[in-house]
Amino acid sequence: MIPMHRLFVALRPPEFLRDVLIDTMEGLDGARWQGDEQLHLTLRFVGEVDSPQANDLADALSEVRAGPFALQVRGVGHFARKGRASALWAAFEPSEGLAILERRVERACRAAGLPPETRKFVPHVTIARLNASSGPIDGWLARHGRLTAPEWPVERFVLYESQLAESGAVYTPVVQYRLVN
């Protein structure tokens, strides 16, 4: 059996921002709040790949050239599936630096033989996952709609491996890549 690796490329928020996000994690019945170690901004979900392709991806990502930039949290949002809220997240102001990095990561993924990403890039950090038993989200969205935090200086991105467990996904950093001008 060929070992498979479930991978994604992301930014890890600094501790001060994770603390701000954790402070929003209350007041909604049935929400499955993310743990500190699960908070990240996904640049590209890769999915399951074999070891050779994982190595090709790690090599391609090492060729990504982008400078450091800053991100600013601005409010919250939600995703819906079949008309029902499925996730709550922190939103970010548009950032040219982030857009450049996301495009270059996508280019590296394609260079490693991955199919193109078809979903629109929506920069966010997931705060909670929701299901049919979760309560109404309107109150939570109203309470945190003006969420802000100090600026986040982004200086690296990370290739993560995700392992699914009963308690939720466990994310392990595989390789960190520095952003340099």
TrEMBL record:
Motif range for HXTX 1? Answer: 40-43
State the InterPro entries in the record. Answer: Cyclic_Pdiesterase, RNA_CPDase
Q: Could you list this entry's UniProt keywords, alphabetically sorted.
A: Hydrolase
Q: Which reaction does it catalyse?
A: a 3'-end 2',3'-cyclophospho-ribonucleotide-RNA + H2O = a 3'-end 2'-phospho-ribonucleotide-RNA + H(+)
Instruction: Tell me the Pfam families matching this sequence.
Output: 2_5_RNA_ligase2 (PF13563)
Give a yes or no for keyword Disulfide bond in this entry. no
Highest taxon of the lineage: Bacteria
What Enzyme Commission number(s) does the record list for this chain?
3.1.4.58
Q: Where is the active site?
A: 40, 124
Motif HXTX 2 is found at 124-127
Q: What does this protein do?
A: Hydrolyzes RNA 2',3'-cyclic phosphodiester to an RNA 2'-phosphomonoester.
The similarity comment for this entry is: Belongs to the 2H phosphoesterase superfamily. ThpR family.
Protein name according to UniProt? RNA 2',3'-cyclic phosphodiesterase
State the organism of origin.
Blastomonas marina
Organism placement in taxonomy: Bacteria, Pseudomonadati, Pseudomonadota, Alphaproteobacteria, Sphingomonadales
